[in-house]
Amino acid sequence: MIFDATLYANKPDLGIPRMHQLDHTTLWDDWRREREGLPTRFGRIFQSEGGTVPDGDAVFLDIEHWPDPAGARHIATLREWSRHYPARRVGFYGVVPERDYWASIEPPQSRKYRAWQKRIELRESLAREAGIVHPSLYTMYTDTSRWAEYATAHIREAKRLGVLVYPFIWPQFHPSSEQPWAFMPAETFRDQLALVLSLADGVVIWGGWGTDGRLEWDDAAPWVSVLREFITAA
Length: 234
Description:
The protein is an alpha/beta fold. Helix content is 35%, strand content 14%. The protein has one domain: TIM Barrel (Alpha-Beta Barrel), CATH 3.20.20. It has helices at residues 24-27, 31-35, 72-84, 101-104, 111-121, 124-130, 147-159, 186-199, 222-233, and strands at residues 2-4, 19-23, 47-48, 51-52, 58-62, 91-92, 132-133, 164-165, 168-169, 203-205, 209-210, 213-214.
């Protein structure tokens, strides 16, 4: 299954399920108080940039700033969400497994890899409560020769938790890379899509931002042609 979480302006209907981002600015009435760690009432959590999330669409929670090693605060948020919306299952972007490029390409028996595993296991309760995880597999380096190892390890560790795994990928290089926001070659994106779909339960496509903010949809972009190939074949 392929989900569309992109934020491009004037994007057509791609004929695949949408996945809407809800972050701390949306989830709480007063997100400034939330960032300071102060109590605040769970707010109008069904509102996003595009308005009310349609019933047929999916949702992911994006709360990346919490120092929450065991996931206790995330679990509390998940339970509060479930109290309001018991029929809508959600997962957290990038929380389980923790993204660690360098640890993930080490041998599984190595000290660095095993330390990474331990950090993932600390959040096993969160993963099982959600029933779904969204590993972040963004392309952090323009040298993509080891991306497959990095992605495979993250998906493998996520699958060990016994939950649905829907990783996020992005047809652009990460802003921290040597070519921030640049679109990767179409063949690279094709290889990434194929690998994730072969290993995980599905994939979430992110994107729509560049150096100058929100991007216009470009139906002629090479990565779009690749995505449409996979959508047609699904």
